[in-house]
Amino acid sequence: MSFKEMIAADNSRVFCNTDEFAELRTVHYDGEEYENVPVVMTKLKEKDRTVASKDHAQGIYLVTAIVHFPVESLDGHIPEKGLKVYISDDDGFDRCYYVAQSGCEGKMVRLELEAYDE
């Protein structure tokens, strides 16, 4: 077994294991719905957003998150930078994110997501 094959096996057995790290979520992307996607979402954090000089909206924060899931979960599609992706939360509601960075390595998709929240 090659090193890449060992990493792929570890990703599916450990990292994407719903008894260990992953949670099953519904993902909407490009007009398609993908159910039971094993998603690992890390470090949801809020920070003050950059405010334009004519923008007077207060109390709105930029929420960022890193998401990992197997590339085959979205039928091989990798969400593109700048597009929207909807991921269900713990309560079953879909939350809209914008893809800030996108990549795939070792058959795992890695997305950096951004969303605005109050």
Describe it.
The protein has 118 residues and is mostly beta strands. The protein has one domain (3-117): Thrombin, subunit H. Helices cover 11% and strands 52% of the residues. It contains one helix and six strands. The chain has a six-stranded antiparallel β-barrel. The model has no long low-confidence stretch (mean pLDDT 81).
What is the helix tally?
1
Tell me the major beta sheet.
6 strands, antiparallel, barrel
The arrangement of helices and strands along the chain is HEEEEEE
The domain tally reads 1
Query: How would you classify the helix and strand content by structural class?
Result: mainly beta
Identify the CATH class.
Answer: Mainly Beta
Q: Residue-averaged pLDDT, rounded?
A: 81
Question: Oligomeric status of the shown chains?
Answer: single chain
Helix content: 10-25%
CATH architecture: Beta Barrel
Low-confidence segments, ≥5 residues, pLDDT <50?
none
CATH topology: Thrombin, subunit H
